[in-house]
Amino acid sequence: MDSSRAIVEMLQEFQLYQAYDELEAQHQQKLIDLIKTSPDPLDADRFDPGHATGSVWIVDPVRRQVAMIFHRKLKRWLQPGGHAELDEPNLKVAALREAQEELGLQLDFEQASLFDIDVHLIPGGRYPEHWHFDVRYLCLCEVQPLTPESEDSPAQWFDLDDLAASEQDAGLTRMIKKTIAPPRNLTSNHEL
């Protein structure tokens, strides 16, 4: 697929998305602005202001558990995801590839749906400080053994009620809330 056509299709999808709350609506607008103004919003080497990334929120069909990986640099548990490769036409493809690499899960592209949009700051280090405009897709998956690509990046299923009771950032808290008790207006974006 032509990359400019893929960008236009993503932009249309993001514009139609219904944000859960005001913070997510702000993130949605920032993502839309990035896509409209950046020559290549998926380019991981663009640090001003940043670039779009894709991740996947993998939940069991009864909404009790979520699959996560331990992010070494950030020293916390997160949903799998990352940067798009040069040959990937969109963020959903990137997110599902990352889930396969990081957890060993083959997820259904057609079943994956836009679930959340989050913009967060990535601290400087090897690369300059920059923003990730993270597009998060929902996938339902039976609980099964996870096979992370590296022993340095452990993966496991977490009980959603336990996660809800622990301290998380605003983006994870929002996804947990959407999963445990999705509001009615979210059914146009995805089905839980």
CA-based gyration radius: 16 Å
Question: What class, by secondary structure content?
Answer: alpha+beta
In CATH, the architecture is Alpha-Beta Complex
By CATH, the topology is Nucleoside Triphosphate Pyrophosphohydrolase
How would you sum up the major sheet? Answer: 7 strands, mixed
CATH class equals Alpha Beta
Give the N-to-C terminal Cα separation: 30 Å
**H and E order:** HHEEEEHEEEHH
Looking at the structure, what is the overall shape? globular
Number of domains: 1
Low-confidence stretches: none
Strand content: 25-35%
Helix content: 25-40%
Q: What is the β-strand count?
A: 7
Number of helices: 5
- Overall average pLDDT: 90
- What is the CATH homology-level superfamily? Nucleoside Triphosphate Pyrophosphohydrolase
Notes on the protein architecture:
Helix content is 31%, strand content 25%. By secondary structure, it is α+β, with helices and mostly antiparallel strands. The chain has a single domain, classed as Nucleoside Triphosphate Pyrophosphohydrolase (Alpha-Beta Complex), CATH 3.90.79.10. Strand 5 (113-122) and strand 6 (130-140) form a beta hairpin. Helix 1 (3-16) runs antiparallel to helix 2 (22-37). It starts with a helix and ends in a 12-residue tail after the last helix. The mean pLDDT is 90.
Which helices and strands appear, and what pairs or packs with what?
Blueprint lengths: L2 H14 L5 H16 L12 E10 L5 E7 L4 E3 L2 E2 L8 H13 L9 E10 L7 E11 L14 E5 H6 L4 H11 L12
Parallel strand pairs: 1-6
Antiparallel strand pairs: 1-2, 1-4, 2-3, 2-7, 5-6
Helix pairs in contact: 1-2
